[in-house]
Amino acid sequence: MPDMLLDFPIRAPVRRAFEAISTPAGLDQWWSMKATGRPALGEVYALSFGPGYDWRARVTQCDPPRGFELELIDADADWLGTRVGFELTATGDTTALRFHHVNWPGANDHYRTSCYCWAMYLRVMRRYLEYGETVPYDRRLDV
Question: Which of the listed CATH numbers 3.90.79.10, 3.30.530.20, 3.40.50.300, 3.40.50.2000 matches domain 4-142?
């Protein structure tokens, strides 16, 4: 099974980075159109990405402010059972972020497109945390 792994620094405190990856308000700034849920082990998030893309994910790791992971339990077939996670390490006034999206069924076209999308979404998150930039949902893959 192919996995997506990305590491990069963010010039923001680790607690702010954790809020961006684990709270509905934070996720809505860079990834989802509308998220609901609570960052606690076993909780279920509703993640809306527009018409026909109302997904659900269960929190499989919640270790503030060091780590957070979601397992997709209601999503496109390729995403079912995959896990999206973040490991955060404070290094002074910078946060080292390690991202993973694991357990893909294969390196198909959807996987390849998602590799690109994750890089773009994570860039939007980094710009939000470092500069306070916000990008409307429908323009996030164009910046």
Answer: 3.30.530.20
Tell me what pLDDT residue 1 has: 79
Give per-residue pLDDT as tens, 40-76. 999 999 999 999 999 999 999 999 999 999 999 999 9
Instruction: Using a cut of 0.90, tell me whether the model's pTM lies above it.
Output: yes
User: In a 10 Å sphere around its CB, with 0-12 CB exposed, 13-18 middle and 19+ buried, how is residue 21 labelled?
Assistant: buried
pLDDT of residue 41: 98
Residue 80 in 3-state DSSP? coil
Q: DSSP class of residue 37?
A: -
Mean pLDDT of 8-35: 98
Tokens representing residue 118 in the block: 């994750």
CA dist list (Å): 4 to 87, 111, 118, 131: 14, 9, 9, 26
Both tokens assigned to 3: 């996995």
Q: Where are the alpha helices (DSSP H) in 23-73?
A: 24-30
Going from the C-alpha of 121 to that of each of 3, 25, 40, 73, the distances in angstroms are 17, 15, 23, 21
